[in-house]
Design goal:
GO terms for molecular function: DNA binding; DNA ligase (NAD+) activity; metal ion binding. Belongs to the NAD-dependent DNA ligase family. LigA subfamily. It is built from eleven helices and eleven strands. It is of the alpha+beta class and 331 residues long. The strands form three sheets. Strands 2-11-10-3-9 form a five-stranded mixed beta sheet. Strands 5-4-7-8 form a four-stranded antiparallel beta sheet. Helix 1 runs antiparallel to helix 2. The protein binds nicotinamide-adenine-dinucleotide.
Length: 331
């Protein structure tokens, strides 16, 4: 097959997988298969840049807006994350960054667990939650404010005396493992189809039309990004400060985080959690490594799809959920 036709086929496969995964909450292939096909397409696009198409899954944040929801344009786009699959790839990313910021610059990193859920964008005006929106395609998401209000870990009002005029918070809605198993058990008893994993169950829950159903599912939430939009308010200058401030505002912030001064300590954080992740009450599929300084983040900026100042270092795949074991794909 000619390379162009093969690339088109890969794109179609990935687009079909995206639709099933993000909009139907019912994946048609395993994540590792998706990641392998994605990387193959990415490598071909690097080799043949003339054959890159603007609608390629490598150029866009996966997802979209499901029917029945009002779509909302994000004030600040939500990006995806570049992936590294081992410490060698992380070292390459660090070397590339160091080249971009200059050898004299000391780069500090914040390591956070990558929670396997769904990103939400929350807007607070004068301290009050006014809007909750899904990531969608990164530019536009679904307005699910009424559903978001049922999540206990999301404050309806910020816990501070003089809140900034506007605050934008990003974080991950997720289902703790036990809740996910309970939900699937109840679905089985009712003869309903099962969710493949907690991430798909979270996404299906966030898109329920009845907030009462969402409340019963008991979603949880970790906050990890803060934008203070107020000229008169003090704004954090590092990711670590933002995480502290989010906790002060009343958000649940994952305690499993660390400011690291070197690639070595990032590697140690990764190895520790790779071993210990089964002891957590929720699924994590890797470590997100972010540059701590906002000034450096600004200097590095974004590609069309990812921030250049962050990367997801993925854990090796865990056992495949039963429902997906039978799926084979055919490309
Ligand atoms: P991603 O989930 O790999 O990474 C980006 C997301 O990480 C962010 O949007 C955010 O929601 C989340 N995140 C969790 N913790 C975070 C933290 N502490 N800080 C910042 N972000 C955090 O990216 P994606 O584009 O949503 O999904 C791509 C992945 O989804 C693929 O690698 C693949 O494994 C899977 N996928 C699978 C299929 C399939 O058919 N099986 C289809 C599409 C995507």
């Amino acid at each position: 097959m000619k390379v162009e036709a093969w690339m088109n086929q890969l794109r179609r496969q990935l687009q079909r997988a995206n639709y099933a995964y993000y909009l139907q909450d019912d994946p048609i292939m395993q994540d590792e298969v998706y990641d392998r096909l994605y990387r193959e397409l990415q490598a071909l696009e690097e080799k043949y840049p003339d054959l890159v198409t603007p609608d390629s899954p490598t150029q866009r944040v996966g997802g979209g807006v499901a029917e029945g929801f009002v779509s909302v344009k994000h004030n600040i786009p939500l990006y995806s994350l570049e992936n590294a699959f081992d410490l060698g790839e992380l070292a390459q990313w660090v070397a590339r960054l160091q080249g971009q910021v200059g050898d004299d610059e000391t780069v500090e990193y914040v390591c956070e667990l990558k929670i396997d859920g769904n990103a939400l964008a929350l807007t607070y005006e004068d301290g009050v939650l006014v809007r909750g929106v899904t990531r969608g395609d990164g530019e536009t998401g679904e307005d699910i404010t009424n559903n978001v209000r049922t999540i206990r870990a999301i404050p309806l009002r910020l816990a501070m005396e003089n809140p900034p005029a506007r605050v934008e918070v990003r974080g991950e809605a997720f289902l703790p493992r036990q809740r996910f198993e309970k939900i699937n058990q109840m679905r089985q008893e009712k003869g309903e189809s099962l969710f493949a994993n907690p991430r798909n169950a979270t996404s299906g829950t966030l898109r329920q039309f009845d907030p009462k159903v969402v409340a019963q599912r008991q979603l949880d939430f970790f906050a990890y990004t803060l934008y203070v939009v107020d000229e008169n308010a003090e704004t954090p200058t590092t990711q670590a400060e933002s995480l502290e401030l989010l906790a002060e505002m009343g958000f649940q912030v994952n305690p499993q985080r660390e400011v690291c001064q070197s690639l070595k300590t990032v590697g140690e954080f990764f190895e520790t959690w790779e071993k210990k992740r089964a002891s957590l009450l929720y699924d994590t599929d890797g470590v997100v490594v972010k540059i701590n300084s906002y000034a450096l983040q600004e200097k590095l900026g974004f590609t069309q799809k990812f921030p250049r100042w962050a990367i997801a270092l993925k854990f090796p795949a865990e056992e495949v959920p039963t429902k997906l074991r039978a799926i084979t794909i055919n490309v």
